[in-house]
Amino acid sequence: xxxxxxxxxxxxxxxxLGSTMGVTTTGILKDIKLGLDLQGGFEVLYEVTPAKKGxxxxxxxxxxxxxxxxxxxxxxxxxxxxIQIEGxxxxxxxxxxxxxxxxxxxxxxTQANLTFRDAxxxxxxxxxxxxxxxxxxxxxxxxxxxxxxxxxxxEKFKTVTEEIVKMAPNNYLVIWLDFEEGKDSFKTEITKxxxxxxxxxxxxxxxxxxxxxxxxxxxxxxxxxxxxxxxAGALPVKLTEVYSTSVGAKFGEQALNQTILAGIIGIAIxxxxxxxxxRFPGFIATVTLSIYIYLVLLIFDWMNGVLxxxxxxxxxxxxGMAVDANIITYERIxxxxxxxxxxxxxxxxxxxxxxxxxxxxxxxxxxxxxxxxYYGTSSIKGFATMLLVSIMLSFVTAVFGSRLLLSMWVYSGxxxxxxxxxxxxxxxxxxxxxxxxTIDLPTRWDRFDFVKVRKLFFITSGVLIxxxxxxxxxxxxxxxxxxxxxxxxxxxxDKPLTTEQVKAAFEKQNIEIDDITLSGAxxxxxxxxxxxxxxxxxxxxxxSAFHNEFGTDPSVSTxxxxxxxxxxxxxxxxxxxxxxxxIIYVTVRFEFAMAVAxxxxxxxxxxxxxxxxxxxxxxxxxxxxxxxxxxxxxxINDTIVTxxxxxxxxxKRKRLKTxxxxxxxxxxxxxxTLTRSVNTVFTVLITVxxxxxFGSESIRNFNIALLVGLITGVYSSIFIATNLWVVLKARxxxxxxxxQTVKEKRKYSDEPQV
Length: 754
Prior knowledge:
Elements: H1 4-31, E1 33-34, H2 36-39, E2 41-50, H3 59-76, E3 82-86, E4 90-96, H4 101-109, E5 114-117, E6 123-126, E7 130-139, E8 145-151, H5 154-165, E9 174-177, H6 186-189, E10 211-215, H7 220-232, E11 237-247, H8 249-302, E12 306-307, H9 309-338, H10 343-375, H11 379-410, H12 454-475, E13 478-479, H13 481-484, E14 486-492, H14 499-508, E15 515-519, E16 525-530, H15 536-550, E17 555-559, H16 561-589, H17 592-616, E18 619-620, H18 622-653, E19 655-656, H19 659-694, H20 700-736, E20 739-740
Parallel strand pairs: 1-12, 13-18
Antiparallel strand pairs: 2-4, 2-11, 3-4, 5-6, 5-9, 7-8, 8-10, 11-17, 14-16, 14-17, 15-16, 19-20
């Protein structure tokens, strides 16, 4: 009898969730903050150094500097800036959506140290004599913009003017901003057409007042900016840019649109595949995957997270990974149906059998994402955060959500004797009376002996590794400025460009470019790289000139040699820590032999990604490190599912006495999980390929790295990790004679022991 109440409950739950998602999704998308790579803006990492001799840079100094920077950002009117203190002497500032990046850069880095000096450069007053919020933009008697200053003490100003009057004919009160001791002087600057000081009025009488006007060749905007800077206060330290990146608004908009299009295409193909291959459970998967995407965006909004371009890539990639848990469960259920169990019993056994595989594989991926978050910077942290949220929510939706929704139909009785709804043919189902075990089920891979040809796999990988090492030594890696230091400039034009045209534009700015690459459908995108770091003034001039010539602001990134070395070091440390963590986890959950085999296959995957980038001369940047660690997490995911099946089959055997038994465990386990491995890699590949062909140019190399890693990852999981375990177990068998695969429980007795 069919319990219609459960089906009605399912429909109501889906209707309620669907309507909630439909009503609230638009609001969530509007509320999510976009990173500077999606809406334009800039990020700068400052090294903090003393402004005066003997000054100490400590936590209090860094905190007060961060506060001063925050006050200056308020002047710009940028909402929700991100200011972080890093290490012992650095501050990172991120301003997404800032319209005038040159102005923002100038306001942030200008020390704004106001001084009033005599003609001999002796300090008479400084910024501390200014009343709180005492600067304002005004107009002089001729209607020209000026800056009015209100002083704390009229008496002090009287004393200063008394002293200046006596110095005639050099009775100047010189007003300076950021006077540099030992470098600047009034006598030198007065001879220049555009002197560095703000103003140098002649004092012919004593003033007993608390107001001073700075009159110069200001525009109204410049006068307003100066008054705002003076009100924000001088920086207590000196700031030096060691890393910066700026993205034009048009670049960000294009990247967002392209990546969303790639995501829609990739996810649509995954939905279609699940429906065609897994039938009704595939429909349940599409429902829970839709809920998963909604929940990821909702949680990210609640976290007040900043969505970056790699973050969107992580969300799209997460869909491919989320479907993995569904595939593991559905393949298990199909196996149980094939041995003759009822739909209800198959659902219960399949769900239970899949749980440990899903848990282990997700925990190892979380481990690598956590390492990536700790050692990543800016947009990479965004990728890692989104990946962490995606993995945890995929576990909840795929394990509990899918199970709950499918159970409503299973326990209603509607699916009884409808194995076809699960994609299982009647001819493949055995009678329960045959007492068939899932280990005995035939697979489409039965004619393959994966262990017998292990030497072929080892030799193939060995030769490729040796060849790869030689090629890496010869070609080396095409390191981006993230690791080698320098400047990268990207230009987006509204018309097709040529290399000669771009070179000519750089020559006008006296900038020597080492490498120019044209891309885009009509060669409208230019990526140029140069050795050496452009100063903020050079960047400002470049942006202004290129905006006039190409119609949009270029994106400019600079990395100092010190930061480049640190980024490279952190990338290596992240990979080592992730590997150590995986060894410990797999050893505890499985055994040491499996941990060694898993790590060897992971390093195998990472090496091939490096070798591929060396041969193809693709640029290796920070996102490449993110791709390597993502593949480390995903590849171990695939390996663990195979190892989990091996552990299950070893438990059934209880002991191994011959090499043939070791080989049989591996062959049977690989055959049973190979379809799952192919399907899960296929779903992730769909999303990655969609991002390679339809996604943003900015993260194309990242997606290519993922593509290479996924292909080598499935190869190493099936053919390298399992066969390395065979080799290690064969050695153990040689030493012990028999290998116990199940720990026998001690038998306790109250009988006296002799």
